[in-house]
Structure formats: C-alpha cells, structure tokens
Predict the structure of Vacuolar protein sorting-associated protein 54.
Amino acid sequence: MASSNSSSFPHGARDGIFLKPQEPAPLCCKPVQSLPDVCPKEPTGEGRGLCAGPSVVPEHDRWTVYSSKVNLPAALNDPRLAKRESDFFTKTWGLDFAEAEVMPSFCLPNITREHFGLYVQEMLQRERIHERCKTICPIKEDVDAISSMTTNHDKPRAELEKVPKIFMKPDFALEDPATFNAVLPWSHFNSAGGKSSRDVSSSKLLQEKMSHYLDVVEVSIAQQISLRSEAFFHAMSSQHELQDRLQETQCAVAVLRSRTTAIDRVMCQGPLQALRIALTRSNCVKLHNKLKLMAAVHQTQPTVQLLLSTSEFVGALELISTTKEVLQQELQGIHSFRHLGSQLCELEKLIDKMMVEDFSMYVRGDMSRSLREEPQVLEKERLESLVFGLLRQRKLDFLDTYSDEIMVSAKAIVAQCVAEALVHIEGIDSEVVTKFAEQMRVMTFPQWFQLLKNIFESFLLFLQRIKATLNIIRNVVLEVQLSGQKRVPGDLGSESQTRESQANSPLLLQGEAELAYLTHEGLFISDALNEVQQQVRDHNQDPVTSSRGQQSQAEALGCDSTSEVVETPVGREPSLMPGETTMPTELELKRIMTNIQDLLYSASDISHDRCVKVLTARAKDGSLERLSVAEFVCLSQVVEAFAKDTEELCGRHSVSLRGALQSQANRFVHRFHDERKNKLSLLLDNERWKQAEVPAEFQDLVNSIADGRITLPERKIPDLEERKPAEFLLVDGQKYAVVGTVLLLIRIFLEYCQCVNDIPSIATDMLTRLSDLLKHFNSRSCQLVLGAGALQVVGLKTITTKNLALASRCLQLVVHYIPIIRAHFETKLQSKQFSILRHFDHITKDYNDHIAEVSAKLVAIMDSLFEKVLSKYEVKAPMPSLCFRNVCKQMAKMHEAIYELLPEEQTQMLFLRINGSFKMHLKRQLARLGVINDGGPQHGLVVVDVAFYTENIQGLKSLEHLDLNMAEIWEQKR
C-alpha cells in the first residue's frame, strides 16, 4: 500500500511514525501537467480596460504541485465548508470564494421524479418483503460481528485508558522542560558519575513502560485502521482514478488555452483597442464640454452686471440660478470656483433689494403721472419683469407697497382737484383759507358740485389705471401658476438626466455601452452595440426631443454668449428654467391672486372714503341740508352714478359713500318735511274753507296722475292766451269742490313722490314723513272745522254746512289719492319693507272716520233744528202750518249749500238721514199731542202738513225719487 501511494505521503517516515520534512523533496514521478490559474489576482481598481485587469488568456509559468496554495488533505478537510464539496476543482478556493449557480445544460433532458415512477412501482413490493425479512430473521454473521467488535473494542479501550493523560494532550511537547520532567523523571537517576544497578533497573522499567504505552497506542491505531480499511482503500483507489482524470483535464485545458490565446490575439485585441480609443475620445469630449462650461461660468459675474445695468433682473436671476445649479452638479469640487457660490448668493440678495426698490420707484412713478393724458399702464414689460422676478425670489409682500402708494395717491388726487378748481374761481384766497374743507365750504354749490364731479372722474380714471396694472400682475401670476401645474415635481431629476443623455452624441451613447460591457453588466458586446444603434435611431427620429435636448444642453452649458441670456423672454415657461424650484407654491399663488382682488376692492373703498371726506367737509355747516330738491337730486344722481361705475369696474359694493349720502339724505328729508309741514300748517291756519278756483296747472297735474305719471310735470312756457281757472277739479270724471290748501297738498305729496323717484334710498323715510303729513292735514282740518278752531284762528263767524261739506269733499279727494300713493311707494320698496305700508291703511281709516263725523255733524245740525221747531208744532189751521214751512225752508237751504259740493249719491244719503231725524221728532211731537191715525180732523191737518213737506223735499234737485216713507210717523192703533 505504501509503494502504490508513495506520491501521496511525504518521505522521511521512520518506525511507522511519519515526520514532517524540513524542505520539500522532488517528486520522482513523471512531470505533472499544468493546471489553470483558478485563483486570479484580485482587482486593484487601476483603470477599467481589459489589459489592466486579470487575464485568463496568456500562458504563465507552468504549474506544479509545489505552486498550489493548499494541499489535497487540507482541501478535502476544509473546516469552513459545511460538507465536503465533490466539485472543488471548479471552484476558487479561499475566503473570497462565492458560489455561483451552474446553469443547467440545454443538451440534457430535465429528469424528474416521474421518469422513475415505473421502476419504483416494480421494486416497491420487493423492498417491503426484504425489510420484513430483515426484522424477522437477522443475519448470524452480522450478529457475531457486532458482538465480537464490541468485545474487542472494549478491551483496548480499557488498556488505552491506562496510558497517562499527558500523552493525550494536544499541546504535548517534549521540548517543554516541565513536560520532559513529567515524562522522564530524572530525579530517580543518580546525577553523579557512574551508573548504579538501581538506576539501570529504573531506566529499563521506564523503557518497558514506554514501550507498553506505544504498543497500546499502536494496537488501538491498528484496530481503528482495520475498522476503516475498506473506506481507506476505496479512497486510495479513487485517488488514482482522480489523478487520471486530472491528466485528461490538464490536456483539455492546455488545448483550450492555446485556442483562447489565438482568439484573443485575432479577434479581441483589435476591437478592444477600438473601444478604448472611443472611450478616450468620449472622455476628451466631456472634458472639452466641462472646460467650455467653466469658461461660461467664469463669465457669469460680468454678464450679471451687464444685465443689471439694463434692469434685466429676471435674466440675471436665471443666470445666477443656472450657474449655482451647475456649480452644485457639474462643477462640484473645483477649487477655482470655491468662492463663486457665496458671491452669487450675495449678488442674488443685492438683486432682491434692487427689485424691491425698483418696484417702489415704478409704483410711485405710475401713481404720480397724469390721469388723463398718459396711457393706463406704464412700461408693461418692465412691470412684468419686476413682478416675475419678485415672484421668483418669493418676495410676496410687494402688493403692500402698492397698497400704501394707493392711499397716498388717493389723497393727492383730492388735493390736486381742489387746487385746480381754486385756480378758476375768483374771490377765494388760498393763502388765507388754507384748509381744503374751508375752501370747499366757501365755494358756491355749482362750483363745489363741479369740483365733486371732477373728483369722481379722476377717481374713475385712477381705478381704471389700478385695475389695468393689477391685471398685468394677475396675468403674470396666472402664467406662473399654470406652468407650475404642468411640471411634475417627481420627475425633475430624471427629466434633466434624460435631456442630458439625449443631448449627447451617439458616440457618447456607444461609450456607455462599452462601459456596460467593460464593467460586466451582463451585456455581450454585440448586444450592447445593437442597443446603442437602436437608441441612436430613436434619437434621430424624434426631432422635438433632439431639439429639446440641444436646448437643455445649451442651458446646462450656460450659453456661449451673453446675448443669448439677454434676449431670453420674460414670459417663457418656468419649467425650462433651472431656478423653478424657487417659485411660490400653489397655495401661495392662490393667496396672491386673492390679495390682488382684495387690493382692487381696497382701492375702491379708499376712493369712496376720500369722496366721503369731500362730502362731509361740504356738509359740515349744513349747506347740503339747505339744497333745493333739484340740487339734492343732482347730487344724489352723481353719487349714485359714481358708485355704480366703481362697482362695475371693481366688482365691489362699497357702502361708505352711499352711507354718507344716505345720512345727508335723511337730514335733507327731515328739512324737506319740516318745510312742507310748516307750509301746510300755515296754509291751514289761513284757510277760510271757501271753495277755491282750480288753476289750469293743477288740473293738468291731476290729469298726469290719472295717466299714471306720479311726478311733478315740467314747467311749461306760459301760453299767450292763459286758460281760465275752473270752478271744480275733475278727477276721474267726478267734480271736486276743494279749498286752495288741498290743491297745494296734492302738489306737496307729488313732491314727495318725485323725491322718491329721484332718490330711491330715501323711500322709507319719505313714506314715514308723508304719512305724518297726511295725518297732520287730517287732524288739523278736523280741529279747524269740526272743532271750530277756524273761528279763533281765521276769524270765521260760524262753521256753516257749506264749510262742512267742503271739508268733507276735500277729505274724500285725499282718500282717493291714498291708494295711488301707496302703489307708487310699493314699487320703490323692497319686499321686506312692505310692512310700513300699513300706515296708509290707518290714514285711510282716519280720513273715512273724519268724513263720517262731518256727515254726522250735518245731520246733527238739522236734528237740533227739528227739535227746536217741532217742539212748538200745534195741529191747527191755517195749513200748511208755519212750523212745516220753516222746516222746508231750512231743508232747502241745506240742499242749496251742499248740492254743488257733494255728489248726488252722498246728497241723497244725507237727506235720507235728515228725513229720518225729522220723522223721529215729528212722531214724538204727535205722540205728545195725542194725534193718531184715526181719520179725525187733527189727523187730516197733519196729513196736509206732511204732504206739503214731502212735496217740497221731493221738489229739490236730485231728490225727486227719494223715498221719504212718511207713514212711519203714525203709531199703531190701540
């Protein structure tokens, strides 16, 4: 066994113990074929070319077993492996070994468990029978072998345990003095010269002991070897077979190496050299572009200064932002540009201050120029540039500056209008009267009214200019907002990378493929080149993408000349600008849009507030309250027109000016009502309650009311032939006998209605005042006529029936017009204000009650007359009696007094009531006299008197068919 496996064991074995040689001895067998270097050099990272890294192609020194890093037993017993690997010749040994999955062969079929299904079914029954036999009847030889092995194994183990434990220690070394003294106790020997018989016997005993220990160990080793002899011989036979296979593999590897070397020389070295040259050219192009970029960045500060000199703030900010982005991405770490970033930041802060100051100067210049001569928007491009720059730098408070300037300019507009008005007015010394309010109060109403219209016109132009300017700002904000919605925040980095890759030449794309191949990214060189060609074709077929890539490249390179930066349009898409990340957010832009609209509203409110000050300054001494109706109406119309114009222009319903006008209107209404109420009171106090003639203008006034025109007619040029006044007032075909006060009352309430037409805001106040006026007329006329107040006030001797009938007719005329007035006011009121119309219902009831009281007063007058006359009535000749003659005479006088004043129906109703009173008194007197309906002489005399009475009454005009029913004067027979 030793001779057959001499190549596997080192030389120098003695007495069955193998000693490790100091130096390796040369092998006497035939030279071994060289094996491939399966442990290549580790990459050093120097360069990425093919020649710079480890190569498996070139031949090196021939390999021998002495060149191996580990020996075969160490490889077979590698403690780092979980199990012994059978294919260790295909692995790279060492700590850096990484197992890789071996691809299955495409030439061999995929063997599955189903292929062995038939065999398993055939052998299943035999296996069951074999297992059953083994358990029932074990083999005798196996039982004996197991028992003998157990007996033989226990005996050497007992002897082996007698061996001292020191020989079994893993750190046993005789070189150690302590170990040596423990194994060989020299203390038992005499250290002096000579050997005694005792020492000799001790040494022999020790030698025998050691020999015994050696025999025990050798026997144990031999026993262990005998137990594993079959495995050992099998391993040795496998060793020879393995060496034969290694020789065949060595020959195959040598042939493969030679072929690979030829392929490398013919097919690889040339193409790889071409790839290296292409990659070198790509690097040179990149370096050239980087140098061009550095040159463009170097010109940033002079270009920014040039742009700032022409107030191109947006272009300067874009250039600074682009340069900062290039410094952070493309030129990061370049030593020469280490201070440029901080310098650009300081320059950007300076531009911020310059933009804020320039915007303030622009706003002051825009507000201080003339409102009528110059265009609405001043330097539109400059404004757009400033607003875009401020938005870009997130200076979002620039509208506050505009708001402050609006306030200052509004004050200046009023002062300028007053100053211009004083130039054309003589008699007002501006040096003596210094305050604007005092100057306006010194003016006459036409002068002040013209000044107010000029102020209104100036403020309208002022608001139009503000709206036009704010529209420009709003358009810029909308453009920024829309462009912000188009861009996708998550794709900014990938989009820039895509544009940069598309901007590069096809050569650079090919270089990327080469890098992919050289860095072992799983691409074969043919696949990489095919992919590059496809990308080039796609790049050429998309001109839009190509142009965008070129534009992106030009922007990334910072432009070749400063002119390209200067000519950049202000309104271009912010998504193409490098500084787009500094734009305001969507929420901030919406807040700015809201502030712009609020600023327009604020400008409208400021204009109204300044006009209110002009109005209140004039009204301080009460001059507005003393205006005529026409003047106040003109003032109200001008103010209302200005309020509507500003509302249409700004979309803001400002209430301050309307409120101030309403306050003045309330004072005007109060004075207006007091004047007319006092005038009506004076007219009533001087009224003698006689029928007045009706001038033609009053008849025309009544006719216009009948036509539906509840207004005062315009004054007409008097005709050459003046129309004579009429005796009665014709209203809807009826004649009204009136006094002069009622005619003036009709004109007065038409003046109220006219004021409501001209000033709708005072409708409620006018309605309340008119109700008070009508109540005052009713109550005062009642005091003067029914209460006989006219006897003391005017000096009438008595209140006649004609006075009463005339007063009743006047009240009826007013009642006729109350529904017309109510309907007119109802059109001027809002639905929620209709509740105040109930005042007219109360007034109508009061007037009707007053008319009824007048009728009752007329009846009471005749009633007292009947009581006085009929109390003296006696039934005796001559007939008709004197009493009945007096009654008929008084009735005729009453009819004569009221016939032309009251309508026929009212006259008949009145005489029916008077006749009833007469019958009541006559019946009472006849009962007192004892005259009954018995056909006697007294009855006959009474019948003659009654017939005379009936004939006289029915003989009066319009009473012919009056049913007097005189039979009621007689009592029933007892």
